[in-house]
Design goal:
heterodimer; A: mainly alpha; 11 helices; globular; disordered N terminus; B: Alpha-Beta Plaits; four-stranded antiparallel sheet; elongated; disordered C terminus
């Protein structure tokens, strides 16, 4: 039943080996990844946030597509892919909370001390935690993106023009929406490390994604306003959702996404520097 | 599986013979360890070494820097200057730290929403420890019945047990416990005490911090006392008490007045207690017994009264207490949890009254149970 209880009067090593005698393998990066996965899936808030994300991403998409499809005269000319992915724009909020919580809950509960006793190599701990959270967000984002797209197009089909993955840019937009969700997750997890507080992390990410662009862009006139709308990292990142090419006052999809990734990278590097430098 | 089986890592004979010699020594060494938080120096120039096979008590009033020192050892805080190593390496450089050092720092520092089993499983995974070990340690600490309950529903005592399970998870040769008996019921305290002793008896290095002196008197072989971050003492419990307390002898005699006179003539300080017993400071019981015999004084009782570790500690740390109670609270103010001192200090362990004269020659009765290799056998029935 255990490798320890078998230790008897024999002098040879016991089957399985007693860990304290020094016969053990060093801990690996993979061990740390598995540990972070156990932590993530054992938190109820992770399940709740994932479900909320799914409900928002699919529910809002279905709602939007149904409304458009039910209209007899189509006044809008919105791209059908963008319509079906509308839910993800709201779902990213739940993803952001999930990712901030995944990190900040360690600080809120004090578990961070125990975590760093288990994995004292902080870069390993940091990258494995961010990696697992980002991977979860990526899977969640891609699955929901494809599901929302599929259901949305089925609703629109016959009532409005619908899209298919074989059309130009559509596959990029659907895959890109999942990538965007993963980037939001990584950004939020980085903010969690930076602020070590769920409230501060969520407040900042909500501010960056939703509030500030909506407040600043309308009140800043002229060229400056256009530039903010064009280069604001999350607005630029959302360009990857779109199929139709925009004008000169929006960025190209991949370029916009790279602008967003630059912000994400800056936050992650700052968070890493802070984690390495600070006492726990 | 019983606790003694699971804790007897090296088995019966290998643990005593092959184990310590073949096992690489993992001991903690601190050299001039200093840690400042801004203007506040929490730990100042601490140097010490922890040896395997014994329980080292880490004593100090609240705010003395015990927890900070432990966190420095574990790499949770970085020293302002100085260094501390575990088995010759920095904690962060240990290839699988949970298998080298087990630590209980703050039992409540567990995510309340997580189940006890998941908490331990995540830690086990991080160091490549098999999942079966999680069930083992849960059983060892008596939490197997609540393994699937969320930690938020645990009492403080249960949280302490989970913290101890965390420390035992990697079956490490070095163990550190910060205030492990907080929140435990009397049975739990006895269990922890026995656990510490048996872990040390297996050849492990055990460091236990406490502000409760009586606890250490019954558990530790050796004590490190710090106050305001400074090293105050590093010695055996025996030496600490001997060096820091005046030795008195309690004498009950049929003729107290005459014997007091006799003693005072020979330079001994004598005070008379409420019960008529004499408290003699200066000579030892042998000398007093012989004096009584030569003078024909009948003695009813002759008891060397050893000061408690608590009293010795108080004498030591008087000037190093961080948080004093207001005036009138007595010298023990600032030591929370310490019961008010009786005028005549009693050693924490039961003291057998010494039979009347003739006094058997020899050392005074020990104030604590004998310890050492002879006590190596783990007690049955713990934590079951």
């Amino acid at each position: 039943m255990s490798q320890l209880s078998t230790a008897g009067p024999s002098t040879g090593p016991t089957p399985g080996g007693s860990p304290s005698v020094g016969h053990y393998r060093p801990a690996t990066w993979w061990d740390a990844i598995r540990s972070e996965w156990v932590k993530l899936r054992s938190l109820r808030s992770m399940t709740i946030c994932s479900i909320i994300t799914a409900v928002l991403a699919i529910g809002i998409g279905v709602l939007v597509c149904s409304i458009v499809a039910s209209r007899s005269n189509h006044t809008t000319n919105t791209d059908p892919t963008t319509l079906s992915l509308a839910g993800l724009a709201l779902g990213q909020l739940a993803v952001a909370i999930l990712a901030v919580l995944g990190v900040a809950s360690e600080y809120a509960s004090g578990t961070i001390s125990v975590s760093l006793l288990a994995v004292p190599k902080r870069t390993r701990f940091f990258l494995c935690k961010l990696g697992v959270i980002t991977a979860l967000c990526l899977v969640l984002g891609e699955v929901l993106s494809f599901v929302a797209f599929g259901i949305g197009q089925a609703i629109l089909h016959g009532n409005y023009h619908s899209a298919s993955l074989s059309q130009p840019h559509v596959a990029r937009a659907v895959i890109g929406a999942g990538l965007y969700i993963a980037a939001i997750g990584l950004l939020s997890a980085g903010l969690g490390f930076l602020f070590r507080s769920t409230a501060a992390g969520v407040a900042v990410v909500v501010g960056v994604v939703f509030v500030l662009p909506d407040i600043i862009v309308p009140i800043v006139d002229g060229v400056a306003g256009t530039h903010i709308a064009k280069y604001w990292p999350t607005l630029a990142g959302e360009r990857i959702f779109t199929v139709t090419p925009g004008g000169s006052d929006v960025m190209a999809p991949w370029t916009g996404f790279l602008v967003m990734l630059a912000l994400v990278a800056a936050v992650v590097v700052a968070a890493w520097v802070v984690l390495e430098a600070r006492d726990v | 599986m019983s606790l003694e089986q699971s804790l007897a890592v090296d088995g019966t004979t290998p643990g005593v013979t092959a184990g310590p010699s073949s096992r690489p020594r993992s001991v903690i060494e601190a050299e001039h360890l200093t840690k400042s938080f801004g203007a506040v120096t929490a730990v100042s120039d601490l140097s010490f070494a922890l040896h395997p096979g014994m329980v080292t008590g880490f004593l100090g009033p609240n705010g003395a820097g015990k927890t900070t020192t432990m966190r420095l050892i574990l790499g949770l805080e970085r020293p302002t200057s100085g260094a501390v190593t575990v088995g010759g390496r920095r904690y962060a450089d240990l290839p699988a730290p949970l298998r080298e050092v087990g630590a209980l720092i703050d039992a409540t520092a567990v995510n309340k929403g997580r189940k006890a089993y998941s908490h331990l499983l995540a830690l086990a995974r991080s160091n490549g420890i098999p999942a079966t070990r999680v069930d083992e340690v849960l059983k060892m600490v008596g939490l197997e019945g609540v393994a699937r309950r969320r930690v938020g529903t645990f009492s403080l005592g249960m949280a302490q047990r989970l913290g101890i399970a965390t420390a035992l998870l990697g079956d490490p040769p070095v163990l550190m416990f910060d205030e492990p008996v907080n929140g435990l019921d009397p049975e739990g305290i006895v269990w922890v005490r026995t656990l510490m002793r048996s872990l040390a008896a297996q050849g492990r290095t055990v460091l236990v911090s406490s502000h409760l002196m009586s606890e250490m008197a019954q558990t530790a072989d050796r004590v490190i006392v710090i106050g305001k971050g400074h090293m105050i003492a590093d010695s055996t419990v025996e030496d600490l008490v001997n060096a820091n307390s005046a030795r008195t002898v309690r004498v009950v005699t049929a003729d107290p007045d005459r014997f007091t006179e006799l003693l005072q003539e020979r330079g001994a300080a004598v005070t008379t207690g409420n019960d008529g017993a004499l408290s003699v400071t200066g000579p030892d019981s042998k000398w007093i017994g012989e004096l009584a015999a030569s003078a024909g004084v009948v003695l009813h009782e002759l008891t060397p009264v050893r000061a408690s570790l608590e009293e010795a500690f108080m004498n030591l740390t008087q000037s190093h207490v961080e948080y004093h109670a207001g005036p009138g609270a007595g010298p023990q103010g600032g030591l929370d949890g310490g019961p008010p001192q009786a005028p005549v200090p009693q050693a924490p362990a039961p003291q057998a009254p010494v039979p009347p004269a003739p006094m058997p020659p020899g050392p005074p009765p020990p104030g604590r149970p004998p310890q050492g290799p002879a006590q190596a056998a783990p007690q049955p029935g713990r934590g079951q």
